[in-house]
Amino acid sequence: MKQGARSVGQRPGVCPRIAAGRRSPLSIAPRSALSRLVPALALLALPAILGASRLHTELKSSDPAKDTVLAEPPSAITLTYTTDVQLAPSSVEVRPAGAGHAPAASGTLAYLADDRKDVLVLPLTGRLGNGTYTVAWTTAGPDSHPIRGTFDFTVESPEEAQQPAEAVAAAEVGLESTAVDEAGETGPQGGEGAASGVFDNSGWLHRVLLYAGIVALLGGVVFRLLVLGHCAREGESRRVIDRASRNAALIVAGGLGFLLATVPVRLWDQAETLFPDDAAGNLLTIATGTPWAVGWWLQVVAVLLALLGGGLVLRAGKGSRAGKGGHPTGWKVIAAGTLLLPVVPVLSGHGWSDDPRVLSAAATYLHVVAAGGWMGGLACLLMAGLPALRKHGGESPPGAPGIAGMVGAFSRVAQAAVALMLVTGAIKVWVHIGSPSDLWTTAWGRSLLIKDLLVVGVLALGLYNWRVVRPALADDPHPGRLQRSAIVELLLGVAVVVVTSFLVTQPLR
Q1: Which candidate, 86, 122, 80, 120, places its Cα nearest to that of 104?
Q2: Which CATH number fits domain 60-171: 3.30.1330.60, 2.60.40.1220, 3.30.2350.10, 3.50.50.60?
Q3: Which of 37, 223, 311, 494 has the fewest CB atoms within 10 Å around its CB?
């Protein structure tokens, strides 16, 4: 039989090497390395985990206090939060109870002091008459999640004429209003006096696209540089490597499309969430001066870097069939942009508001890298690597890694990713929840349990592929043996991405 006509399953060299007793690097199971890695990471993280505590933005206290009765009208409204808050998206309004949005008094909102950014103060320029007033506030904590709430207080001054609060509102109706949402439209986190409505998940779809794009780029980079790089060093056919690289580049291009689409949508959604009455007029405010804005700009830079790297890959492939999709410099530029992307969910989610922040941010970043590299790499193995082997595997020289070697290379990467994901996931849960009961008494906890059940399914299938399918490929290197279970594993991974996109919008209480 001619060499070019050999199928993947008929290629010589794989089984004879094993039968001869040679310990191929493609068949080494890194069980001992993995068993040492997990305890080491856990021990390193243990002191920080034990010292971690919840630190999520909530309204801690107010002056006037909720439902208090004052003998004299207040000269200012003071709001104290459990964390520093961002001034730019914050607003506080005082209006007569039941009088809609008409303000009773106004002033310029500011921090209590430069070193007290957890306290907002609204000086009142007008004197409040007797009556009941509602304070409506909105702000954003370090994680840039908007929170809103309302509370009432009453003025009963014996020196004031008994003037209805509605009359005061009519006299002051010309004052500029910094209106906030009606009570009942709360953000992802509530506080003292916060309304108890359900968070608006209108931005859920763009979060799914954001995470899908991150997974696609992380998976493409991991597969091209680590998996195919290993196969190339072990003597795999250049045609197989180039074909698989081109397929992986298409997956990366799809992820870039998702990320490009979410750039303007995320900006508009954040502006509309924090400034529902004037989203267009506050786009610049949203895009500057907040952690969320830093994450948004990092997404822009990461996408541009990945596009530049993709251009280098395409340029290297022109006029050289052997170089298509495989330009190492271009892929390294794509990798540089890709490694910026996991910072985006760090700066736009709960990870930035937990204490200790360094531990929380690092755990979130590494968790995204590990999960994205694992699931994205699996997608590339199925949709880029196996098709390349089916098309050009028969051209590989004797002793080339083949499907067994490619799966073995991915298996080593996946095991390291799973170990890292489990450790960082445990850290994230520890710093997020106040008690185990939060897992079934809060929306965030219940969503997390659903995600964990899906992850258990993915891990079970991954374990099956590692311990059963991968060794069997050494004797019968047929792609169909892997595809069935791996496709189910990938579909469960997609479900995990969808649930995660919903999870980051949920309140922590």
Answers
A1: 122
A2: 2.60.40.1220
A3: 311
* Bridge-based pairing state of the strands 146-155 and 131-140: antiparallel
The answer to whether 249 and 220 are in contact (CB under 8 A) is: yes
Residue 254 contacts residue 215 (beta carbons within 8 Å) = no
Q: Where do the structural domains in the chain lie, given as residue ranges? A: 3-14+31-55+200-503, 60-171
- Of residues 166 and 84, more confidently modeled: 84
Q: Region 365-372: what's the mean pLDDT? A: 91
The CB-side HSE value for 339 (13 A sphere, CA atoms) comes to: 7
**What is the predicted pLDDT for the residue at 187?**
38
- State the Cα–Cα distance between residues 159 and 144, nearest whole angstrom: 43
Q: Are 405 and 13 in contact (CB under 8 A)?
A: no
SS3 88: coil
Query: Which pair of tokens denotes residue 233?
Result: 């060093």
Beta bridge partners of 111: 120
Q: In what order do the strands lie in the sheet with 110-113?
A: 59-63, 76-81, 116-123, 110-113
* Listed residue (502, 209, 489, 476) closest to 377, CA to CA: 489
What is the band of 252 on the pLDDT scale with cuts at 50, 70, 90?
very high
Q: Residue 246: left if φ>0, alpha if ψ -120 to 50, beta else—which one? A: alpha
Q: Which helix (H) or strand (E) holds 250?
A: helix 238-274
Mean pLDDT, rounded, for 16-34: 38
The answer to whether 486 and 470 are in contact (CB under 8 A) is no
pLDDT, tens digit, for every residue of 301-320? 999 999 999 888 887 765 44
Q: What is the DSSP string of 149-181?
A: EEEEEEE--TTS----HHHHHHHTTTSPP---P
Residue 261's pLDDT band (boundaries 50, 70, 90)?
very high
The answer to whether residues 222 and 334 touch, using CB atoms and an 8 Å cutoff, is: no
The partner residues of 152 in beta bridges, in order of sequence, read: 134
CA–CA dist 421, 326 (Å, integer) = 29
Q: Tell me the C-alpha distance between 318 and 241, whole Å.
A: 17
3-state secondary structure at position 60:
strand
3-state percent helix, strand, coil for the chain, nearest multiple of 5: 60, 10, 30
Asked if 18 and 408 count as a contact pair (C-beta separation under 8 A), the reply is no
Residue 307 to residues 217, 311, 345, Cα–Cα distance (Å): 11, 6, 20
412: tokens are: 């080593």
